[in-house]
Amino acid sequence: MFSPQGPSLRELCNQAFSSVERGYDLLAPKFDHTPFRTPDSFLGATADALSDLGPFDHGLDVCCGTGAGMAVLRSVCQEGITGVDFSAGMLAQARSAHPDATWVRADARALPFTEYFDLAVSFGALGHFLPAERPALFAGVYRALRSGGLFALPIGAPPPLTSVSHWATLGFDVAMRVRNAIWRPPFVMYYRTSPLPAVRDDLTAAGFTVTAVPLTALGQRRDGSPRCRLILARKPADPTDARPADDPRCCAHG
Predict the structure, then answer these.
(1) Among the residues of the chain, which ranges form H helices?
(2) 13: Cβ–Cβ under 8 A, 6 or more apart, which residues?
(3) If exposure means fewest CB atoms within 10 Å of the residue's CB, which of 95, 118, 226, 246 is most exposed?
């Protein structure tokens, strides 16, 4: 699972018994050599799907980590691209890899942007938010988007009950719940707390119009259903909004 350049078992243990922010600060220099980084296949499939919906002007990667999602934004956005994360260590790696992008350190549950971006994406971050925290996350993304803006995030289908992946993710989530019950600070990372129906409902409650399209390039399950869908959450267009595309209604550039 890990390349020789990845973290050692001791380093992973140090991360696991830290807070989420501190844990990712520690992991940041070796994060891209772990299986936690979003695979290029997911990024490419997302970029291909968004290419039919764009082009877009300004793009935002929510919980950007080391910046893997910048390749998606760069392929479909004509103007500036921005990444936001609350780990200074992850942002340092992202800034080094993508010096032409804008980087903002902030808590995704309180995004400091207002009606600036045409497209927002997020990859593999929902497990870091408890279900009760998703409304604040989605409300912030909604606020950050311009009228008619789009929020896109891929969500994989749950693994079959008889698969190794099912029992591995279940075991991981149980272990994390035990860890968080007996150890502080908590480390929030769960694989099974963001099913598609619940995410769809929370996005709808935030004001988005929600659809989902299959990412066919990522294959199908045995029953013929897609292995992954791309959620497309659209902020309704305001017919009175005729401001120019470069209107900088963004309260944080860093």
Answers:
(1) 9-16, 20-27, 40-51, 70-76, 88-97, 134-144, 164-182, 196-205
(2) none
(3) 246
- Amino acid at site 49: A
Q: For residue 219, report the phi and psi dihedrals to the nearest 5 degrees.
A: 90, 180
Would you put residue 219 in left (φ > 0), alpha (ψ -120 to 50) or beta? left
Instruction: Give the tens place of pLDDT for each residue, 64-122.
Output: 999 999 999 999 999 999 999 999 999 999 999 999 999 999 999 999 999 999 999 99
Cα torsion at 13, 18, 24, 26 (round to 10°)?
-60
Hey, what domains does the chain have and what are their CATH numbers?
A: 1-36 (no CATH), 37-158+195-234 (3.40.50.150)
Strand ranges across the sheet with 117-121: 102-105, 81-85, 59-62, 117-121, 145-156, 228-234, 209-214
Instruction: Decide: helix, strand or coil at residue 222.
Output: coil
Tell me the one-letter amino acid at 182: I
Task: Please give the model's pTM, rounded to 2 decimal places.
Answer: 0.86
d(CA 236, CA 223): 34
